[in-house]
User: Fold these one by one.
Assistant:
Number 1:
Amino acid sequence: MREYLMPIFVVAALALAGCNKSKSPEEVSKDVARAEQKAINEVTKSEERAQSALDAAHQTYKVAIAKADGNRKVALATCESQNGAAQKACKDQAEADYKTARADARVSAAVAVQQK
């Protein structure tokens, strides 16, 4: 039985060792640039839809969510330059900021609907 467990533990250890590894500055820079460009594109699309839509509050919410999503992607790409616990903390902070931005967008949308 032990003969079968040892390879499983070795594979699990190797898989875990690959997590939270830092990337080279060049790779991080490319990832951040790609995430920023994608965020800009998503925000632009959302803004264009907001201009042509009847329900401005809903579209404003969508724009805010697109911005939050873009900021999250950029932050997560930036976290790749770190490793270990610092990378995990960075990713956790990015996720927390994203959740806060989504909650703020919901509140803003609710206020906008109530004002109509």
Number 2:
Amino acid sequence: MFDLVKKAALAGVGFASLGSEKLEELAGELVLKGKLTEMEGRRLVAEMKERVEKSRSSLKEQGEGVVDKAIEKLNLAHAEEVDSLKKEVAALKEQLAQMKN
């Protein structure tokens, strides 16, 4: 029964967006209805939290990859490169000012 409930929960649209409280509430309801034991409910919540976190991490990495590719394709500078150039320009301005004096 636990596997069936777990598969059904995973198949639900937007499951990854459920918050921790909602996961615990869902598991609690299933326990009260006798669909899961208390142990299975806890295990379900723990597994779902882990899956949600992995999904978020994966989405973040994929998003960063897409952004990096777009920046590269458009030949745009990364923030670190801009900061480095700002420092270099400031140093050159200072050298120029010293040469004028």
